[in-house]
Amino acid sequence: MKVLCGIGGSDDSLRALERTVARAAAAGDDLTIAVVDNPDSPRSPEELVEHAEEAVADAGIDAEIRRLEGDAGSRLVDIAEREGFEEIVLGGGKTSPMGKITIGSIAEFVLLNANTSVTLVR
Question: Which of 41, 77, 107, 112 is in the most buried spot, having the most CB atoms within 10 Å?
Fold first, then answer.
């Protein structure tokens, strides 16, 4: 499966990265990791690229790691459509005290606009 994993630095996105890399190692997925700009992230894009490189190396797989600039949601959707990705994996989704899921703007945009399957890792 051709998978695009978008990470923006949240703890959820790092969990999504770990889960996606593990699945790629087990299933032989063709994985691309997209590091996106997220102004709410406590981690820099450079830190995220290093983290992704380490995760891929530790799993013993080959994966392309890209640094995306601009509007993260629209860039992820555009790349997924233009390059024929079968799935987009993102981290996101917090449960409110009332039990409802709240998601960030990047995940919301991708969920509402992608023509491919989207997996949201919480």
Answer: 107
